[in-house]
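forwarding from the other thread:

> can someone predict this with fe (ii) ion?

sure thing
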Amino acid sequence: MPLLLGILALLSGLFIAWVVGRSRLGGLPAFKGVLWIPSALGVAAVVAAFCHPCGVASIAAVVLGLLSAILAPPLILICSLGKSFGDGGGRWCGRALAIEGRSVVTPAVPGDAWRADRVPDVEHLAAPVRRALASEWLEDARLEHASIAAFGRLSLQLMAVGAPPDLVARTHRAAVAEVEHARLCFALASAYGGAPMTAGLLPRAALDHGPAARPSLVRLAVESVMEGAVGEGTAAAIADEALAQAQDAVVIGVLGTVARDERIHAELGWDVFDHCLSIASPAEARAMADEIQEALSTTPAGLLTGPDAHLPAHGRLGAARRRQIHTAVIGAVRGRVERRLASVPGRSAGG
Ligand SMILES: [Fe+2]
Ligand SMILES: [Fe+2]
């Protein structure tokens, strides 16, 4: 019996870590609900082993139980951090293509199929600066390319919840805008890098995303706030500030387009959220409120992958400034969500 409890504790700890590791934002809401299971089983195994000692089995139970109870929390935390550090994590170029909580991005390959006809002035730049700028813009290009697919998926989800034609049409226009963003970013990356770069094949995982393609109304509302209001809103704010500091005329033109469009996309996110709220049952509305507040409080605070260069003259803000902007957007979104949710039965503003 003690050995069985110990094994159960270890298996449940691994299972919980696996579930949390695959869920959105590290599955922190799930973390709160199930963390006690391996810990409790582990403690039970230790107690049972001491009450009914039977040699090797008891020792094994104690070891397994203690391991589970001690290792489960940090293991889950590591899974959560791994999520935040995933591809695209913490880089805000708008709506991410999230598959089972992970941001899927398109690989970049040599070629010029996705390269717009824009060439910034690169002659006077040192080689390391050009390499840094090429890497930065290439990361953005991959994310912008993935955003096209994210809006494609959103249009299907909207039609599945009976969204009005205006929202569906705006979603398709957003996807077209992302095509242009990707082309512009590939153009800058190619120019700074001195070699043409283009989009590779979208990972097949993007075509096989199962439940992600048909989320509940609550999930769609949460995603609209997090990917639209927060993600696109942050991208717009970053582009705005970068635009104010950029000096190259071509870069200024690109940032102007991106800033304008991302702001439009952020408002689309709000309108999708409003639609979901308007057709939600009281229970669904309360679930939306709870999950959005949870998501807003656990969203990664700007953990970055890939290159990071503070080269404002060329439209690039450093990670520290991007984190500050992201934090400010989260605060603004939280206030706006609260005002929207104040009318939900059983809730009041602030809680
Ligand atoms: Fe966007
Ligand atoms: Fe974009």
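Residues 94-95, 147, 178, 232, 261-262, 265 surround fe (ii) ion (ligand 1) (CB under 6 Å). thats all i got for now
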